[in-house]
Amino acid sequence: MNSSEIKKLDKEKIVSTYSRYDLVADSGKGACCISADGRKYIDFTAGIGVNSLGFCDDGWVEAVTSQLKKLQHVSNLFYTQPQVEVADILTARTGMKKVFFGNSGAEANEAAIKTARKYGTVNKGENANKIITLNNSFHGRTMATITATGQADYHKFFTPFLGGFDYCDANDIKQLESMVSSDTCAIMMEMIQGEGGVLNLDEAFVKAAEKLCREKDMLFIIDEVQTGIGRSGKLFAYEYFGVKPDIVTFAKGIGGGLPIGGAVFSEKCCDVLEPGNHGTTYGGNPVACAGALEVLKRIDDDFLEKVAEKSQYIREKLMELPQVKSVSGMGLMLGVEIEGKEAGQVVKDALKEGLMILTAKDKVRMLPPLTITYDEINEGIKILKKALA
User: Fold this and answer.
1) Is 223 a catalytic residue?
2) Sheet of 219-223: strands edge to edge?
3) What is the helix (H) or strand (E) element at residue 193, kind and residue range?
4) Which domain holds residue 183?
5) Which of the residues bear the PTM N6-(pyridoxal phosphate)lysine (predicted)?
6) Binding-site annotation: residue ranges for pyridoxal 5'-phosphate
7) pLDDT averaged over the chain?
8) Which whole number is the average pLDDT over 11-35?
9) Most buried among 19, 192, 292, 334, by the most CB within 10 A?
10) Is residue 18 in some structural domain?
11) Is 252 noted as a catalytic residue in this protein?
12) What is the DSSP letter of 101?
């Protein structure tokens, strides 16, 4: 099928839950995507932060293909080597104790929410089930995680919501302190509010939240679905803030392109969930874990240092553009404030010129593959400059 036929069939047969951009992707390599019509695009999206090693990385393809030839699925009623190897690396590199595997960021956050509520009920009383999240946050689209999300736009049409969530303004320590009660079981936050506009939290606020959790016997949950697995220039972004969370959720980039998510648990709460409390059919699938294992093996200290260097280079190049007012974010998760042009229009104009980028609120959002080359960066910035003119 050609592009027109694919788009026509999509419109007829697929539920319209996405406002798709005018690109039919056919193949790719690294940070280059080729359309069904044979046109080349520089990719600054990585599938919304998923393709951490870019398109069709040779090592990743080999790891996944090798596992496919052995065992594609067996369920969590049995043991598999790829799953325990990924868990071993994650716990060793974080100092945490155990891992729960799911298929997505929303599932990862669901596991964290259920753990927090059971922890509160068992340790603080049957009413200790409230979780404080932040205004402008995003935690997923299931009924629990959309309720945890502190954005009114995501709450339209879907009432009644799950109870027990309260929303605090980001970086307001006094408000946070005033909201904690004996019924609060957890505080949950992103280190960078990605969907909320690529907004970094203040270190003092993050540390204050951790301190409250220690004093009031609550769980400190950090959502690293988008910021984790090297995206920030550290394995997890919380490392920049000098805190030790109780639960860290992850997804997106760990799979390198296959659906996998999960949560890493500290000793304080690693045994809260017991058989029958929670589960998933596909979570920790051996093929997805084989891909995750390749990603984690590649993201070592040298790799992370290169991510930080690329981040600084992109920031400098962006600030040379007269239309760019500011750049927020960390590592290769950047929010670009544009003057004189609406972000959505910038994305459309850039795509016409051959660059794939995203939006986050009123900013242009960049999530390129962590393996992007400097030649690809330069080509992408050159196209963006043309789109902004």
Assistant:
1) yes
2) 98-102, 261-265, 247-250, 219-223, 184-190, 130-134, 165-168
3) strand 192-193
4) 61-298
5) 252
6) 105-106, 138, 223-226, 281
7) 97
8) 96
9) 292
10) no
11) yes
12) E
